[in-house]
Amino acid sequence: MDYRISTDRNRLDLPLIHEFLSNSYWAKGRPIEVVERSIKNSLCFGAYHNDRQVAFARLITDRAVFAYLADVFVIEEYRGRGISGMLLTFPPILTP
């Protein structure tokens, strides 16, 4: 597989994330400013195929004992390849 998981916020494709979330049933109509703020205040994971972002997940966390998984998606053309499993098993670095 040629996929990479990253927690680097600078790599995240904000227009892609906003487009997906604002059309999802759980975040329909969510403004881009809210998506941007949610990313800024969460531990985010992007999955990339040849530098193209193909999946996203974020953890709302106190970085000590609590984490809530939110806004997980894989773009349609990449579903069924185990990418969501990679996002969920990637060991997060929860230290500052």
- Category by helix and strand content: alpha+beta
User: How many helical stretches?
Assistant: 3
Oligomer: single chain
The CATH topology label is Aminopeptidase
Largest sheet: 4 strands, antiparallel
Q: Kindly state the mean pLDDT as a whole number?
A: 90
Whole-Å distance between the termini? 30 Å
What is the CATH homology-level superfamily?
A: Gcn5-related N-acetyltransferase (GNAT)
Return residue spans where pLDDT drops below 50 for at least 5 consecutive residues. none
Radius of gyration: 13 Å
What's the SSE pattern?
A: EHHEEEH
Description:
Helices cover 26% and strands 30% of the residues. By secondary structure, it is of the alpha+beta class. It has a single domain (3-89), classed as Gcn5-related N-acetyltransferase (GNAT) (Aminopeptidase).
Write the layout of secondary structure elements.
Layout: E1 3-6, H1 14-22, H2 32-40, E2 43-49, E3 52-61, E4 67-74, H3 83-89
Features:
single chain; 96 residues; alpha+beta; Aminopeptidase; four-stranded antiparallel β-sheet; 4 strands; 26% helix; 30% strand; globular
In short:
26% of the residues lie in helices and 30% in strands. The protein is an alpha+beta fold and 96 residues long.
